[in-house]
Amino acid sequence: MSYFEYLNFMERPMAEKETSTEASPSLTMHAQYIKDLSFENPRASVIFTKQTGQPDVEVSVNVGAKPLENNRYEITLNLNAKAKVESESLFIVELSYGGIVSVNNVSDNDKNAFIMIEGPRLLFPFARATIATITREGGFLPLNLQPIDFIAVFKANLKTKKGGSDK
Questions:
Q1: Residues in contact with 154: Cβ distance below 8 Å, sequence separation at least 6, in sequence order
Q2: In whole angstroms, what is the distance from residue 76 CA to residue 165 CA?
Q3: How distant is the alpha carbon of residue 166 from its chain centre?
Q4: Which among 30, 46, 49, 150 has the fewest CB atoms less than 10 Å away?
């Protein structure tokens, strides 16, 4: 069963799933960890002594993976957030959150998609909590990131790679 067939399979009613005899693709998380974390509050003394308006927050997401030994992979979820009021920077947070995973019952053609979508999907709640905690500890309201569509991130990365190879 390919990864994309698996996604369609998961959307079927439970009665149809019970009649299937194929093994479902699976991803096992062996470890997860903070690889790198940076929080900058460049104008703290000024920011905390005057009233500021609602900040504009810009968030960027990037996902990477590299093969390890024994059919394991390291997935890295990079989250960067910058908050500004007008042109003044409030804070900058950069998190590189990693995980070691292995996959089962996934074809070689679908392995990349499975790792780059399901891996970050499992890591995201923990990375999100780390971002919320570090912004709160930095003196701000916790930054609660909205859920991320990692299928869309994967497709955008594919489109970027294809566009870059044409040049």
A1: 63, 113, 116, 117
A2: 23
A3: 27
A4: 49
Could you give the residue ranges of the DSSP H alpha helices within 19-149? 44-47, 108-137
59 or 22, which is more confident: 59
- Rounded Cα–Cα distance for residues 3 and 25 (Å): 7
All domains of the chain in start order, with CATH: 25-165 (3.10.420.10)
Burial call 135-151: b when 16+ CB within 10 Å, e when fewer: beebebeebebeebebe
Q: Is 83 exposed, middle or buried (0-12, 13-18, 19+ CB in 10 A)?
A: buried
Structure tokens at 69: 């030994």
- Give residue 1's identity as a one-letter amino acid code: M
- Compute the distance between CA of residue 103 and CA of residue 46 in angstroms, rounded to an integer: 49
Specify the DSSP element, H or E, that contains 9.
Answer: helix 3-10
Q: Which two tokens stand for residue 165?
A: 């190879």
Q: What is the pLDDT of residues 89-143, one digit of tens each?
A: 899 999 999 999 999 888 888 899 999 999 999 999 999 999 999 999 998 999 9
